[in-house]
From TrEMBL:
Protein name: Glutamyl-tRNA(Gln) amidotransferase subunit A, mitochondrial
Role played: Allows the formation of correctly charged Gln-tRNA(Gln) through the transamidation of misacylated Glu-tRNA(Gln) in the mitochondria. The reaction takes place in the presence of glutamine and ATP through an activated gamma-phospho-Glu-tRNA(Gln).
Origin organism lineage: Eukaryota, Fungi, Dikarya, Ascomycota, Pezizomycotina
Record bears the keyword ATP-binding: yes
NCBIfam families in the record: gatA (TIGR00132)
UniProt family annotation: Belongs to the amidase family. GatA subfamily.
Length: 485
């Protein structure tokens, strides 16, 4: 069978980059015939190889969520997002490695071993970000055309930033979560990774549909109220609270340069304040583990999950503890403990309820700065002329470039959580948000860093302004490529 050049290239790269551990399983060779008509020029999902994060159910490949407890699970059905992709002619080319159940920022907490980013053989192994690190790296190393991930607190945007691809988290509730293994239901969002904004938009257009099987899917009546705003020139908000002291200089310089280029291209810049941001991370790390602990309670080896071996006939309490102890990795066990504690009677008021209040403050901050009124909130309508409001916010996706895996191993869990400081606020508010790679000027890079290093610049928009966010991301990519020309 003769395959088009691009199809051969993807397959060759899957072989060549197997050591990066981006995939946990690959499609059967019999699927290869599907690539026979692949035309890479078109921004269209038809015939394209798309990788699926391993917490999204597929009938033809196992779905393990990179957890020992689901190591033998094959789903009897496809997740809605997978079905929609297949209906549109895309080919599921494999399942990607991730942090167990989506809990992590470096894709190192995996039953299949860590994802390892290495741009050249001499470079030290670095973090591909997490938890959708496998999906991001599979796109970055051209092992697939695009990939699906999930983003609960940044898991699509952070890996996109570290690996140099585009990563989009749509508004909460736009893409179906039916058949997606839950981590924290009130935050979980299916996201898309691609090499450019147009590819990501093409996938989004196929997936953006109401799903009656998902109770959190945004109903058609509310979808009809979302405006499809078009803008030639954007009012861009610069969140001053995001200019934190731990921002790596290369990241700050890339952010500043992007803003300058946007200004020179006719867009206007406006400082905005998002004061609740400083508490967003702590609120997230209370709410997400709390939801996770109740979601993961069902994996006890009796109702769901693999049962630990050699313990038949033991009392259920022993079975439960042993199955869970063997099935879950350390980070998952840590989160379950944390979540169970915050939901306990003695901690509920001081932690869980306080975190919910902060979540509301974060949402209010965003509603105050955006020109578009949040369609989910009854609020005073704002005028488009309002001097103080903005169309989108532009800020870094992460405070640093991709760290080495050695330094990640040495980090304590709290420092690891700091990677999510800029991605978590949009997650708490359910807002659309995208990370776009922006190159770093050679002068801003330490001598030993590779030339193709990029910084992720994040665009955040009001709930339902997904098209506007994609359009702004496109503008950033264009001014970026013009400045490189
Ligand atoms: N790093 C964050 C966490 O561990 C975000 C993960 C995600 O978005 N799935 O919770």
């Amino acid at each position: 069978m003769s395959l088009p050049k691009h199809a051969q290239q993807y397959l060759a790269n899957q072989f060549k980059y197997a050591h990066l551990n981006a995939f946990v399983s690959l499609a059967e060779p019999s699927k290869l015939a599907s690539y026979a008509n692949l035309k890479i020029e078109r921004h269209d999902v038809k015939d394209k190889p798309i990788a699926i994060k391993d917490n999204i159910c597929t009938t033809d490949l196992k779905t393990t969520a990179s957890s020992g407890i689901l190591k033998d699970f094959t789903s009897p059905y496809d997740a809605t997002v997978v079905k929609l992709l297949r209906d549109a002619g895309a080919v599921v080319c494999g399942k990607t490695n991730m942090d167990e159940f989506g809990m992590g920022s470096h894709s190192t907490h995996s039953n299949s071993g860590a994802v390892k980013m290495q741009r050249c053989a001499t470079e030290e192994e670095r973090s591909a970000g997490g938890s959708s690190g496998g999906s991001a790296l599979a796109v970055a190393s051209a092992q697939c055309w695009a990939a699906l991930g999930t983003d609960t607190g940044g898991s699509v945007r952070l890996p996109a930033a570290y690996t140099g691809v585009v990563g989009f988290k749509p508004s909460y509730g736009l893409l179906s979560r039916w058949g997606v293994i839950a981590y924290a239901n009130s935050l979980d969002t299916v996201g898309i990774l691609g090499k450019d904004v147009e590819d990501v938009r093409a996938v989004f257009d196929k997936l953006n549909a109401y799903d009656p099987q998902d109770p959190t899917s945004l109903p058609p009546s509310t979808r009809a109220r979302l405006q499809n705003k078009k803008k030639a020139f954007f009012r861009i908000g610069i969140p001053l609270d995001y200019n934190i002291s731990t921002l790596q200089p290369a990241v700050r310089q890339a952010w500043t340069r992007t803003l300058k280029e946007l200004y020179e291209s006719g867009h206007s810049l406006h400082p905005v304040h998002l004061p609740a941001t400083q508490h967003a991370l702590s609120a997230y790390y209370i709410l997400a583990p709390a939801e996770a602990s109740s979601n993961l309670a069902k994996y006890d080896g009796v109702r769901y999950g693999s049962r630990a071996e050699g313990i038949d006939g033991t009392p259920e309490s022993v079975l439960f503890a042993k199955t869970r102890g063997q099935g879950f990795g350390l980070e998952a066990q840590r989160r379950i403990l944390l979540g169970t504690f915050t939901l306990s009677a003695q901690a509920m008021d001081n932690y869980f309820i306080q975190a919910q209040k902060i979540r509301r403050l974060v949402q209010n901050d965003f509603n105050r700065v955006f020109t578009t009124v949040n369609p989910l909130v009854d609020d005073m309508p704002k005028s488009d002329e309002d001097e103080n409001t903005v169309d989108v916010i532009v800020c870094p996706t992460a405070p640093t470039l991709a760290p080495s895996l050695t330094s990640v191993k040495e980090q304590d869990p709290i420092s690891t959580y700091m990677n999510d400081v800029f991605t978590v606020p949009a997650s708490l508010a359910g807002l659309p948000s995208i990370s776009v790679p922006v190159r770093i000027a050679r002068d801003d890079l330490a001598a030993e860093q590779p030339l193709e290093e990029t910084v992720g610049i994040q665009v955040i928009g009001q709930y339902g302004d997904d098209d506007l966010v994609l359009a702004a991301a496109d503008v950033i990519s264009r001014v970026e490529s013009m400045s490189q020309a």
